[in-house]
Design brief:
heterodimer, A: mainly alpha, Four Helix Bundle (Hemerythrin (Met), subunit A), B: mainly alpha, two-stranded antiparallel sheet, 21 helices, 4 strands
Amino acid sequence: MADHTIDHNTLPPNPEKATLEGRNKFMGFWFFLGGETVLFASLFGTYLGLRGGTVDGPGPSELFHLPFVFLMTMILLTSSLTSVFAIISMKRGNYKGLLAWMTVTVLLGVAFLGLEIYEFVEYVDHGLGFTTSAFGSAFYTLVGTHGAHVAFGIAWITTLIIRYRKSGLTLTNAPKFYTAVLYWHFIDVVWVFIFSIVYLMGIGG
Amino acid sequence: MSYAKAQSKSTLWDWLTTVDHKKIGIMYLVAGAFFFALGGLEAILMRIQLMFPEFTFLPAQTFNELLTMHGTTMIFLAAMPLLFGLMNYIIPLQIGARDVAFPFLNSLGFWLFLFGGILLNISWFVGGAPDAGWTAYVPLSSESPGTGIDYYVLGLQVSGAGTLIGGINFLVTIINMRAPGMSMMRMPLFTWSSFVASILILFAFPALTIGLLLLMLERVFDATYFNVGMGGNVIIWQHLFWIFGHPEVYILILPAFGIFSEVIPTFAKKRLFGYSAMVFATLIIGFLGFMVWAHHMFTVGMGPVANSIFAVATMAIAVPTGIKIFNWLLTLWGGRIRFTTANLFALAFIPSFVMGGVTGVMLATSAANYQFHDTYFVVAHFHYVIIGGVVLGLFAGAYYWWPRIFGYKLDEKLGKIFFWLFLIGFHLTFFVQHFLGLIGMPRRVASYLDGQGLNAMNLISTIGAFLMAVAFIIFVVSIFTSRNNKVTEEDPWGDGRTLEWTIPTPTPEYNFAQTPLVRDVDALWYEKYEGDGKMKAAEPLGDIHMPNGSILPIVISLGLFIASFGFIYHHAGFTWLAVVGLAITFGAMFVRSIKEDHGYHIPVDEITNNKGGE
């Protein structure tokens, strides 16, 4: 039923929500993101409670290099924008455009992740290990959990792109792309909070 | 896959791969009952140790392990799965759906819970169970030697993931899958309360996930969140734990409230008094449930302002709960009450739970809490609300829905013996514990001295515990001896009001041959009094689409189970096991992602045959 290709002309206006399965997936994913919000809120709370606990190790203001983190932020925000372009392409029935923009999104995600790994290596060189202090543990846990989410998102979207490279847009894969993009926006929003609370407050406050 | 092919599979394979909400519900019930018996056994062993002063039945370390495992098992592996079993079986039937929104995830949630429960209990056989209490306060838990706490952390992490998945599944099912005409304000109260409980699961469990993650990283990978010498803070654990832990008790009690709201009207032969007040009281309890976690921490030293705020918020919960109590009483008022076993449990719940509520308000008085904290008064309080509320609710629900789920009625005579023994045993065990606490007996102690006025009440308490154990054995016996009380009618109690009593017994695989049209709250009751007693169909008879079974949920859960051992024995060099396990889990998720599975159809003649043969 739902597995044959939908012609551009017969495509329902919102293919991601056209079937009950799609609607369920859509709503279930929003709920999941609600749970993820509490998950990150718990990590932020922990970090705020522990960010002064540097003991003998380096503290935020000695480590963080704002221009570098700003670059990371811009890359991730841009990747959110390109995923929006992907969804616009989907709504217009332009499947090639969808795949192309999703690929750009993944590449930007990979760039972000690479910079984050580089950043962590730098900090370890400057004397902040995972076990150096409570600040170190809390920092790596919060930012690392976000990084793990980015990595998972990259793997997920890559899987979708490869799996559906030839299928065209269907009522089955439209919800999948749509939820993947929701997820991508979510990790982007979390990063905005990390940028503000961890980096800006770390340097300014 | 064709329908005939789906039928030809072996029974075992069928149960291992099933995505049918009814079979998953039954598996939850069976596994939950097993863990309930296990947790009960642990309680009996503790009560034997406390029977006499300075008794030497158990070493103190074993006692600590028992009290930890009793609490953890009863909350996570008994009460929640038993409620999930009923929710799984009953909610789709009550809303007129053929299955839950995510049948695959439903199965995954069950297997995660089961593997997590097994993992936790393996600790008994490999160097000792966790021993830091079910709350696992740091630094007691982070410094605890051995692997017990590691099993606690990973066992709960795995089973908690299953619970979270289950919660999301119920939410989407209830919002998206209701039959035509069933608006939110026409939903049965059990569905409503399960809906609110699922919201609580969604927003409470991630806090536990993070707490457990931090504790695991602290123990296994030497992180320093809770190490004060390294800049850490031990209170963070308490906050994270109770931000989860307090909503958790409402996750347990709200579905039980829902069960009473189904049982009491049925056996009072009246509709529920104050339906909308019940719905809003449930929502308010759910909301306030998130605002009160720090009342578990009054003695931590948060200061008078924080203590006062949390005290007032806690007392406020008594208001919506009181509304519910009065609504149940007024449902009974003037009703034609039948004293079936299910209803006896519901009637006994009202005074028992009110007693637990009263001690709850006493405990919420933060100044007095300094006296009550960590004494048997607290133990008495939470057993009054959990046994007097949740467990009585589970038994009421079991007797009420047994004919729907298993196709026979449980013996009423044995049921009444079970009920009275259990109720008397329960009050005998826990009523005296209020006074033990008030005269100063601390909780979680392996023994006490002679000559302090504690002997007689401890002995009484132990005798009560044995009565409860005997009662439960009678219940288990009656499950087997009642098998001949076969039920064939759709509405075996005669006064069913909701959609689960409109379908043939035993329940067909597809639940409803035709989706029913709901015309009022208490859909079936309305048709009985305003229509011809039968539900109107909302669709013509046709082929029914069903999802295919899958073995992947077990594979995903097994992967996490294996990975957990890698983390637990990280220091012994087994980290590779974690890599293998996670590879299995993510590999199975990958397969699930790339393999499209569109299910199969049950042909219409199959359905008409079944209808004719009922």
